[in-house]
Amino acid sequence: MISTIPGDLLGVLRSARHVVVLTGAGFSAESGVPTFREAQTGLWARFRPEELATPEAFARHPREVWDWYAWRRVLVAKARPHAGHRALVELARRVPTLTLITQNVDGLHQRSGCREVIELHGNLTRVRCAGTCGTSPLPESPDTLPPPCPCCGQPLRPDVVWFGESLPADALAQAWQAAGACDLLFSIGTSTLVYPAAALPEVALDAGASVVEVNPDETPLSRRATWCLRGKAASVLPLLLERTWAQEKGKPLQSDDD
Fold first, then answer.
1. Is 121 in the active site?
2. DSSP string of 108-153?
3. Each residue of 97-153: pLDDT tens digit?
4. Catalytic residue among 82, 85, 109, 121
5. What's the number of CA atoms in the CB half-sphere (13 Å) around residue 215?
6. Are residues 106 and 230 in the same domain?
7. Which domain does 217 fall in, by range?
8. Nearest-5° angle of CA 197, CA 200, CA 204?
9. Angle in degrees, CA 25, 195, 43, rounded to 5
10. Cα(8)–Cα(183) distance, rounded to whole angstroms?
11. In the chain, helix, strand, coil percent, each to 5?
């Protein structure tokens, strides 16, 4: 666990007007949600994710793909938001503007109390028509799997971005605009290897913002990040908030500058 926070970061966070937070798979992994590739266990160990998470796979084997996502929904339902999720809810109360962008599809940010979340890769708990009808509520006890779209009869599919598909244009545009307009961006639990999401910290840096990486491991972003906090979100974020706003109350702080 990280025990010190850079003193200059405390001042930047306290005075920030617009904070952007980008979260990746590592953030949800702390709640027990398997990462995309870790979900290949048990019955599904014989498959590669690329063999299931594509439009072509769904067209060839719709029931198999549907069952894999149904199994993943059960795993996600058992997970609970951790202290890092709750810290972001508190941070949203502390700063004038917070834009939360996630690559995760588990809905844990919303379950923790975050009101507005830009979902770059969709949401596992939603389904949408394989045609053009859009999203639809997840049927509780469908007679057939995959269930048919109530509007056109085509099969419903998970409302997630599959290999070979583009990210939702509106979500990506909102994320890009926020990254270019913020004064501080956090990249948390993401490898910064998957584009275009991995470019968002670069957009912020190029626009003059500061960037904080929160990750136990080094990533391609580490060399350019303004600060790198080595640790997990559930430990680092509550400590960061405590140290930042404790200073306002005149409480002693520990920092790397002490």
1. yes
2. HHHHHT-S-EEESSEEEEEEEESSSS-EEPPPSS-SSSSPBPTTT-
3. 999 999 999 999 999 999 899 999 999 989 999 998 988 778 888 888 999 998 999
4. 121
5. 24
6. yes
7. 1-33+81-121+167-258
8. 175
9. 45
10. 14
11. 40, 20, 40
Cβ contacts of 129-132, under 8 Å, gap ≥ 24: 129/154, 129/156, 129/157, 130/58, 130/154, 130/155, 130/156, 130/157
Helical pair 233-246 and 83-94, crossing angle rounded to 10 deg: 30
Residue type, 45: A
Q: Per the omega criterion (within 30 degrees of 0), is the bond before 137 cis?
A: no
Same domain membership, residue 134 and residue 234: no
Residue 186, strand partner residues: 21, 212
48 within 8 A of 126, measured Cβ to Cβ: no
182 shares its domain with 208? yes
Q: For tokens 């470019």, what's the residue?
A: 199
CB atoms under 10 Å from CB of 42, counted, come to 8
H or E element, residue 154? none
Could you tell me the CA-to-CA distances from 158 to 118, 227, 235 in Å, in that order?
17, 37, 32
Cα 219 from chain centre? 17
Q: Which regions of the chain are under pLDDT 50? A: 40, 42-44, 250-258
Query: How many Cβ atoms are within 10 Å of 257's Cβ, its own excluded?
Result: 12
